[in-house]
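ARCHIVE ENTRY
Sequence with per-residue tokens
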Amino acid sequence: MKRFYIFIFSLLLFLSIPSVSSAEELSLDGLEEYKFGYFKSSIEVESSAYDQNHLDRSASGNVPLGISPNSTSWKRVTWHQDAYSRVDVHLFRFTYQVYWEWNGSRITSVTRTSTPSVYAPGWKYEKLTTNTGYYYNNNQNYYTLRQGHFRFGAGPWDIQHMYPWIEYDLKRGGSFSYARGF
């Protein structure tokens, strides 16, 4: 019976651990392939301009609900980083969402949220290892970076560590650039 458990654990280990090499580059289709698995990235973008004709009246009578009074437009960007084994077992997901508002001259507010999700046995989300965000260029830009820590192991033994990260450089006017990796 002990050999059976060792065999099952070894099989799970082999099928669910992606091998990561820092020298490998991202592919253009959002899939990053590795020896024992792959990673998939996806992005969702929502935006809206401040529209005088479609206002929900607040107490002041002129501010849309959910939009700060000093802003004219907003954008929400949500990036998902998913890890899969080579037999398509979904291991985990790291999501980072940034919402920002701006007026004609500067970014007026930024809200950042990250959400870890674990789907496969043996994987665990440990913590957020990097959480940086700051305005620069007289509030015309905002830089943000978040990195999560996932681990695969059994009991006290850590077998694999993964550190997915996503960074954004937000600009007034709604444009942005990004980078991501594992």
